[in-house]
Every structure is written in C-alpha cells, then in structure tokens.
Design brief:
six-stranded antiparallel beta sheet; alpha+beta; globular
Length: 463
C-alpha cells in the first residue's frame, strides 16, 4: 500500500504541460484581440429578436417585447440569440467548456442545496451548450457594463467593474488549475461565508450595498410559494392555483394542455433516478397553470404543477419548454436529441448542487420538449438596480468566481489559465469589449423602441 499522503499525490493532469499549451495559443489568438467588437456584415439584431418569437404563444409575445424594451439591460437579458450570433464572430482560442449560454449577471443567485445550505451559483440553463469559454465571460462582463451604466455610475467606474470581472475570472481559473478534479468539483460558494468575509474586509460596506437577507431567502420555500400561488379548494380537497391572468392562468379541466399533463408526468418520472421517483410518486396532482417567467423566456410554454403529499405537504414543480439553445447553430458537431435533457445535464455539470427534482419530458402530441425543476426552493436574487459601486464590485467577484468554477468543472482550467496568464492583458481587453458591446446593446434597444413606436412591433408595457 502506498504511503503517499493526499498532498504528496500528483495532480490528475500534468498542469505544467497544460499551462504551456495554453500559452502557445496566444501566438494564434492574442489576448488583446478579445477587445475587438465589430458588428458582422448584414447584422440584423431586430430581425433576430423577432425571429426568436417564432413558436411562442402569440398572446404572450407582446409581453416579451414590452419587457425587453423597458431598458437596455432588459434588452440584453432577452436577446441571448442576438449576442450568440455576435459572439460567433469574435475570436476564440480553441478551448471548449460547458457554457451557461446566457451568463448575464441576473442569471446568478442564491438557492438551497439538498442539505439545506444556502449557496450562490448560476441559476439559468435554458441556453447551456458546449462552446468556447470566452462567450460566457464576455456576456457576463458586457452585462455588468450595461447594468452599471443604468445604476448611474461614471463611465470609468463601469469599465473598472467589467475589468474587475475579468481579473477575478482569470485569477480564479488559475487557482482551479492547481487543484485536483475532485477539489474543483466540490468547490462551492457558501453565502454566509461571503457575507462574513465582506464584513471583515470592508466593515459592512458590501453587505449594506448588496443587502442579502438570509432569513428572507430561507423563508422563500415551497410553503411560502404555496401561500402566494394558491388558494384552498372550496371542496376541501387541497388547493387550487390562483388565477392572475395574463401572468398566471389556471388551465380548465377540459383544456387540451391539461389533458396531456399525465403523459408528461409519466415521461418525467422515467427521467428520474429510482430514489427521486419514489419521492415524487408519493404526491398526487392537484392543479396546473400556465405561468409567464423572465424576459427572454416569455411566450415559451411554462407550467406550474401543484401536488400534495400523503400528509398534505405541497410539492410545486415547474415544467418549462426547452427550445434549441441559441448557441447550437454556431457550434460544430454538437447536437442534442432532447432539449430538456440538454438543460438538465448542463445544469448538473455547471452547478455545485442541483435540484433534486430535475428531469425532462416530451409532449406526445406536439413533440414539445420540457425540463422539470422544483419551484421556489429558497431561491433569492440580488436586487441589481439597488447596487452601489462597492456592492456591484463584490457581486462581480462572486459571479466571476462562480463562472470560473463552472467552466473548470467541464473544461481544462490549466489550458485556459495558461492562455490568460498573470498579467492584466485579458482583463483590459475584456473591459474594452464590454464598453463596445454595451454601446451596441443601447443601439439595439433604441432600434426596438423605434419599431414599437412606429407600430411595427406590438408591445404590452408594465406586465
């Protein structure tokens, strides 16, 4: 038996060779080249935005347009397809990872692990796909630039925030490059530790700026969701979902969509591991509703399904349509047979802890594919509009750390670290890109607003 300690054992991959491999790629794609943003020839952001409405529920599309035109940041959130096409024209150094695919700063947040710890992580995977790591970090930096402008920061401060995101990503991926694969896999950002470190280092500045309420996060569980989403059934048999059209609409008993739910449910059960299947099967179906969610997802089919357990406890699942990732047309040789399974698999790769109820299903009639997850399991999002400069900087740190950890789980962090190096060349280039793309986003937003004013695009505002 070996007498080596864990500390004495060699890393899983020869990191030095991988670092050297990454450095060599600078000769092909210089780090400074990531600063460049030139709109591709015949670029049509408005056309891509409107094409993305195809296949959505027609009555809800004007709500999507109204939400996207609310601000440049709202436009960025809803225009993942536009940025995917844009990023496809930008330089990449050749290392692919499992991408979030829509890594803007509002797609990170707090939720409960199966052990009921509050953790911070990515929380949206509709567009997850294999692809170049640069695409995620560029979308993240650009989103911070746009959001910082909307919060009224000076242009210099906005650029500093974007550069800071690049620096933290670069330094974090380098730390992960020196860790063994299992260490990377088990790395997690504990929310209470983040707050404690912020308090110790900056005398409460960051906590007040971000204003994370752990108690409020813990209260946002399935019991509180039940109170908000449902009402007692008059016949005394559990609950019914509250009607709040157009954002939440109960499906009548004779609605064709409702009749398909049992079939969707059986297919979902088959996607679960045996232990999770036993748990879900303890619950009986009570009610179903169509729910409007997010910005970019508005108009896709998203159902809230309410169950009750043997002792009356609720289980609320979200059954959300899974469309082809906006990245798929731009990634060669990677296709998926089931889009719901793609979302679930990507989430499990990218997150430190994933929802115990994750699964997928398919409609037998329309062949529409869905993924399933639990609704409201201590999920808590940072109020980005209220962030002051210190809070925006700390939020940038935790998002960049989280994205680097997510990429390191599937890719080779040593190759990326070798390419990025120890200097700030990439950080500066990323900041330049963020500034240029934020300008582009503002122009695209203005074009959508003009089309709405001209009556070319229908929009419902404030919904």
């Amino acid at each position: 038996m070996s007498t080596d300690t864990i500390a004495d054992l060699p890393p899983d991959v020869p990191a030095t060779a991988a670092l050297d491999h990454g450095r060599l790629r600078r000769k092909t794609i210089g780090r400074g080249s990531h600063a460049l943003w030139r709109p591709p020839a015949a670029r049509d952001a408005l056309g891509i935005t409107l094409d993305a409405n195809e296949g959505r529920l027609p009555d809800l599309v004007p709500i999507r347009m109204g939400r996207m035109v609310a601000s440049p940041f709202a436009f960025l959130r809803g225009s993942a397809a536009v940025m995917a096409a844009d990023l496809a024209s930008t330089p990449t150094m050749g290392e692919n990872v499992q991408l979030c695919g829509d890594a803007h700063l509002a797609n990170f947040g707090i939720y409960a692990s199966p052990e009921r710890r509050l953790v911070f992580d990515l929380n949206d995977f509709d567009e997850t796909h294999i692809g170049p790591w640069e695409w995620d970090i560029k979308r993240l930096a650009a989103s911070f630039m746009v959001a910082a402008r909307e919060n009224g920061f000076s242009e210099a401060v906005c650029r500093d925030v974007a550069r800071h995101v690049g620096r933290v990503y670069r330094e974090t991926i380098r730390r992960f490059a020196g860790m063994r694969a299992l260490e990377v896999w088990y790395a997690v950002l504990d929310v209470e530790r983040v707050i404690a470190e912020a308090e110790a280092a900056r005398a409460h500045r960051y906590r007040r700026a971000i204003d994370i309420s752990l108690e409020e996060a813990r209260r946002r569980d399935h019991i509180s969701a039940l109170g908000k989403l449902s009402r007692p059934n008059p016949d005394g048999n559990g609950w019914l979902i509250r009607d709040r059209p157009p954002l939440l609409q109960r499906l009548p008993m004779d609605d064709p969509s409702r009749k398909v739910v049992p079939v969707l449910y059986r297919a979902y059960l088959r996607s679960l591991t045996p232990d999770r299947r036993v748990l879900v099967e303890k619950h009986r179906l009570l009610d179903v509703a169509l729910k409007v969610v997010g910005v970019g997802s508005v108009g896709t089919r998203c159902y809230i399904v309410l169950f009750a357990g043997p002792a009356g406890g609720p289980l609320i699942l979200q059954v959300k349509e899974a469309r082809v990732s906006v990245l798929e047309p731009f990634v060669k040789h990677v296709r998926h047979s089931h889009q719901g399974e793609r979302v679930v698999t990507g989430q499990r790769i990218l997150q430190a802890f994933s929802d115990s109820f994750l699964g997928w299903t398919r409609s037998p009639n329309t062949k529409t594919e869905y993924y399933v997850r639990q609704l409201h399991d201590m999920k808590y999002s940072i109020d980005i509009a209220d962030l002051r400069q210190p809070g925006m900087e700390l939020y940038g740190e935790v998002c960049a750390w989280t994205l680097a950890r997510a990429h390191a789980r599937s890719g080779d962090p040593a190759v990326i670290a070798g390419y990025l190096g120890k200097s700030d060349v990439f950080d500066e280039a990323l900041a330049d890109f963020a500034v240029a793309y934020a300008d582009q986003t503002e122009r695209d937003h203005a074009a959508l607003a003009a089309a709405i004013r001209a009556g070319k695009v229908a929009a419902e505002h404030g919904i």
